[in-house]
Write a structure and sequence with these properties.
The structure holds 2 protein chains of 2 kinds. Chain A is of the alpha/beta class. Chain A contains 13 helices and 17 strands. In chain A, strand 10, helix 5 and strand 11 form a beta-alpha-beta unit. Chain A is globular and about 60 Å long. The chains are: A alpha/beta, B mainly alpha.
C-alpha cells in the first residue's frame, strides 16, 4: 500500500528534549465557555461564588457540547463577553485564585458499568480532541456503527509542536492504559498507534511496550505534512478511505489524539476533569522554548513572559502550529483546552501576491489531490458548478498550497471562501 | 506592545518564489549560452544582451502603459529574452531581434494579461514570427568558429541533403554544427535541464515524452533516431520550452500527453513536411491544445466519489 504524500517541512522541534514544566498558578484565570467544536456552554456560577478545582462551571443542554470545569480554587470576579480566536462570541468566567487549589468534592473516579455510563463519564470529564480541533470526545466514542480500528494519532506533523511527543515520552503507560480502556469499552479489535518517523525514540519505546500485545500495531508514518490530518492518517495507517460525505466511523474507524487517550485514562483513575494541558512555547521571539503544563485560563502573556519573550517586539502570536494554528489578536487571551502550542514571532512579512504562474506546485502538495489553482479561478468567477466539480468541500485547510505557492497566493484561504459559495444541500 | 498581526493560516511559507524559479531557469541556460559564445563568437553576448534588455524595457513600458504593477523584478522577461536569443542565428541584425522581443513580450505575453496568462510560449512565437517575416536572415547560418577541426557546413544538420556528409554524434553533442546560437550544444542543454529537474523546477515528464516519442517514431519510419533528437532544437525545446509553466499542462498526465504531442508533430513535420525543423511549430500547436489537455487530465480527488487514490 502506498502512502499519501505530503509536504516536507522543517520540523523545528526545538523542544523535543524539554521536560514538561508545571507553570506557576496564575493570580487570575479567564475560562471561556466555548473551547471545543461543540455548542458554547452557559455559566453555572455567578459573580462572587467561590469555586474549587474541578468544579463544573459551565454546561449546555445541547448533546454536541462539552462541560467546562474550574481549573483553580478561588472567587468568581466577572462573567465577561469573550471573543474566541475564530471570532465567535461567548461568555468567559473570570476567577481570582486563592492559591490553595482546594479540590472539589465532585472530583471522584467515575463508575463505569456499561457503554452508556462510559460515554456519560467521558462527557463529564470535559474531554475534547487535544490535537487542536477540539471535537467532543464523548460524541466520537459513541458511534452508531461498530468500530473495528482505533487509530491513535501521534503524528504531530506541525513544525515546532512537541506536546504530544512529550506525552509519549513522559506518560507512555497512561497512553497504553487509555488505549486499553477505549478498546474494551468499544469492543475494538485493532489499534494503530501512528507516529511520524521523526520521533524514533517514541516509536522504539512503544514497540517495546506493545511487544506482547497483538492488537496494538505501531505504525511509522512518513515525516511529511499533514500526516496528522484525519483522512490522511486513516489511509496511511489502515488503508481505508473516508469517502466524500462519510465520517470515519462509517468505515469502522475512529481517530483519537494520543494526549486525549492518555487524559481519559487518568480521568478514570482520579476523576479530575480536563483543567490543565501541556503546550509547546516556541517561536523566534521566545528566548527559552519550553514545554509547560498550565491550568486552563492562564493568560498567554504570562506564559510568554515566563519563557523570556520580549513582549514589545512580538509581532505575531500563533495559538497552535504555524500551518493550521490561528494568529491571535490579543496576547491576553487564555489557554484553552485545544491550545497545543503557543508561538511568538518578532517578524512577519506580509508578502505581496503576484500572478499565478501555473507551476502546479499547489496541486502536487495537496494531500488529497485538489487543484487549488483551478479552484481559485472558478472562485473568481463564482462558478459554483465548477467548484463542486473540483471538490473544494473536501479541503481541510491544511495550508500546504499557500505554503508552497511561489507567487504568495492565499490559496487555502480562497478554498475556505469558495466553500461558503456552495449551498449546503 | 504594538498591535499583533492577524492573518489566516498558514503562517509559514516556502522560500522558493517566482523570481527564484526564474533565476534558476537563467542559471540552467548559462552553460548552453557560454558554449554558444565559444562556438559562434562574441556576437552571442551582444545579441543576448540586446534581447534581454529590450524584453525588460518592453515589459516595463507595457505594464506602465496598461497601468499595471511593475513586474520586472520577477525576472520572467529576462528568461524570455535569453530563450529568444538562443533561438536566433547569431548573425541576425539587432533590430530584427528587437522586433522579436516586441512580439514576445507585448503581443504574446502582456496583451493576454502578463505572466501566467499567455496561451503560447512568447519566445517560440517570436521565433516563428521572425522566421516567417525574415526567412533569409533567420536561416543564415555560419560555421562554428571555434572548434579547431573542420566544421562540416554552414547549413543546419537537418537542412542538409541526404547525400551531404552529416556531422557526427560527437559534433552534435558538443554543438559543433550550424544552428541557432543556443540550440546546438546538446550536452549543455541536457545539463541545464537536469539541473532544473534536480531543483524540482521542472518535471521531466514532458521532455522525456517529447524526446522519447520523437526517437521511437523516427526509428519506425526508418530514420536515424539519435541523429534526429540531437540535431536541431529538440533539447532546447523539450527542456526549456515544453516545460514552460504557463503554456503547458499543469498535471503529470497532462505533461506526458503534451510531450507525446510535441514529439509526434515534430516527427510529422520533419518526416513528411518540406520544412527541416519542426520543434517550434510542434510546441506552439501543443500550447494551443493545453487548455483542453488540462480539462481532460484533472486530478482525481482522494475520497471523492468513484476515485481510488489521488494522483501525484
Amino acid at each position: 500500500m502506498s502512502k499519501l504524500n505530503g509536504l516536507k517541512l522543517y520540523h523545528r522541534k526545538n523542544t523535543n528534549n524539554s521536560i514538561t514544566e508545571e507553570f506557576i498558578l496564575p493570580a487570575k484565570v479567564k475560562i471561556p465557555m466555548s473551547m471545543t467544536m461543540g455548542t458554547p456552554c452557559q455559566p453555572l456560577v455567578k459573580v462572587g461564588d467561590t469555586v474549587k478545582v474541578g468544579q463544573k462551571i459551565g454546561d449546555s443542554e445541547a448533546p454536541f457540547s462539552v462541560p467546562v470545569h474550574s481549573s483553580v480554587s478561588g472567587t468568581v470576579t466577572a462573567l465577561s463577553d469573550y471573543i474566541t480566536a475564530s471570532g465567535t462570541v461567548c461568555k468567559a468566567v473570570e476567577i481570582e485564585t486563592d492559591g490553595k487549589q482546594t479540590v472539589s468534592e465532585d472530583v471522584k473516579p467515575p463508575v463505569v458499568t456499561d457503554r452508556e455510563s462510559f460515554v456519560k463519564a467521558v462527557r463529564e470529564s470535559g474531554a475534547c480532541g487535544l490535537g487542536g480541533a477540539g471535537f467532543p470526545t464523548h460524541i466520537k466514542l459513541n458511534p452508531k456503527t461498530p468500530v473495528e480500528i482505533l487509530v491513535v494519532n501521534a503524528a504531530e506533523c506541525e513544525p515546532y509542536i512537541t506536546a504530544d511527543y512529550r506525552e509519549m515520552i513522559e506518560n507512555a503507560e497512561d497512553i497504553i492504559g487509555g488505549i486499553k480502556l477505549v478498546q474494551s469499552q468499544l469492543g475494538i479489535k485493532n489499534i494503530k498507534l501512528a507516529i511520524e518517523a521523526n520521533k524514533p525514540e517514541a516509536i522504539k519505546n512503544f514497540k517495546k511496550i506493545a511487544e506482547n500485545d497483538d492488537s496494538i500495531d505501531i505504525v511509522t508514518l512518513p515525516s511529511s505534512y499533514p500526516q496528522g490530518a484525519e483522512k490522511v492518517i486513516i489511509y496511511n495507517s489502515t488503508g481505508r478511505i473516508v469517502r466524500e460525505g462519510q465520517i470515519p466511523s462509517d468505515i469502522g474507524v475512529i481517530v483519537m489524539n494520543v494526549s486525549t487517550v492518555s487524559f481519559l485514562y487518568r480521568y478514570m483513575q482520579d476523576g479530575m476533569p480536563l483543567i490543565k494541558r501541556r503546550m509547546t512555547i516556541d517561536g523566534n521571539a521566545v528566548a527559552y522554548p519550553k514545554n509547560i503544563r498550565a491550568v486552563i485560563g492562564t493568560s498567554f502573556r504570562e506564559i510568554l513572559e515566563y519563557c523570556g519573550t520580549d513582549m514589545d517586539s512580538v509581532k505575531k502570536i500563533i495559538a497552535g502550529g504555524p500551518m493550521m494554528g490561528m494568529s491571535i489578536p490579543d496576547a491576553d487571551m487564555p489557554v484553552i483546552k485545544t491550545s497545543n502550542a503557543l508561538l511568538a514571532f518578532d517578524r512577519y512579512d506580509q508578502k505581496k501576491t503576484s500572478a499565478c504562474i501555473r507551476c502546479g506546485r499547489c496541486i502536487k502538495v495537496c494531500p488529497i489531490g485538489l487543484m487549488p489553482a483551478e479552484i481559485e479561478k472558478s472562485f473568481k468567477i463564482k462558478n459554483i458548478d465548477e467548484l463542486k466539480e473540483l471538490k473544494v468541500m473536501l479541503c481541510m485547510n491544511c495550508g500546504s498550497c499557500t505554503y508552497i505557492c511561489p507567487a504568495n497566493r492565499k490559496l487555502a484561504e480562497t478554498n475556505q471562501l469558495a466553500k461558503t459559495l456552495i449551498p449546503r444541500n | 506592545m504594538k498591535k499583533l498581526i492577524v492573518s489566516p493560516s498558514p503562517h509559514d511559507e516556502n522560500y522558493m518564489k517566482t523570481s527564484g524559479i526564474m533565476l534558476n531557469v537563467i542559471i540552467a541556460l548559462i552553460p548552453a549560452l557560454c558554449i554558444g559564445c565559444y562556438i559562434f563568437g562574441w556576437r552571442v553576448i551582444t545579441l543576448t544582451a540586446v534581447c534581454i534588455s529590450s524584453c525588460m524595457i518592453f515589459e516595463y513600458l507595457s505594464r506602465r502603459l496598461m497601468k499595471r504593477s511593475n513586474t520586472i523584478t520577477d525576472l520572467s522577461a529576462v528568461v524570455t529574452g535569453v530563450l529568444l536569443a538562443m533561438n536566433l542565428p547569431v548573425t541576425l541584425p539587432y533590430w530584427m531581434a528587437v522586433i522579436g522581443c516586441f512580439v514576445a513580450i507585448v503581443i504574446v505575453k502582456q496583451l493576454f494579461g502578463g505572466l501566467g496568462q499567455n496561451f503560447a510560449n512568447p519566445a517560440i512565437t517570436a521565433r516563428i514570427v521572425l522566421m516567417v517575416s525574415f526567412p533569409s536572415a533567420m536561416t543564415h547560418w555560419i560555421k562554428p568558429v571555434s572548434y579547431e577541426y573542420d566544421a562540416v557546413s554552414s547549413a543546419t544538420p537537418l537542412a542538409m541533403g541526404k547525400d551531404a556528409e552529416l556531422p557526427s554524434y560527437i559534433d552534435l553533442l558538443l554543438g559543433n554544427v550550424g544552428g541557432c546560437l543556443g540550440e546546438t550544444c546538446t550536452l549543455a542543454l541536457l545539463a541545464g535541464g537536469l539541473y532544473l529537474a534536480a531543483r524540482k523546477i521542472i518535471s521531466l515528464a514532458s521532455p522525456v515524452a517529447f524526446i522519447g516519442s520523437l526517437a521511437v517514431l523516427m526509428a519506425i519510419a526508418g530514420e536515424d533516431p539519435l541523429y534526429h533528437i540531437l540535431a536541431g532544437g529538440v533539447f532546447l525545446g523539450a527542456f526549456f520550452m515544453a516545460t514552460d509553466y504557463a503554456t503547458t499542462p499543469i498535471t503529470f498526465k497532462g505533461k506526458i500527453i503534451f510531450g507525446l504531442g510535441c514529439g509526434t508533430i515534430t516527427f510529422v513535420i520533419r518526416h513528411f513536411g518540406s520544412y527541416p525543423e519542426g520543434v517550434s511549430f510542434a510546441i506552439l500547436l501543443m500550447n494551443i491544445l493545453t487548455p483542453y489537455i488540462d480539462q481532460m487530465t484533472r486530478t482525481k480527488v482522494f475520497g471523492a466519489k468513484g476515485a481510488e487514490k489521488s494522483e501525484g
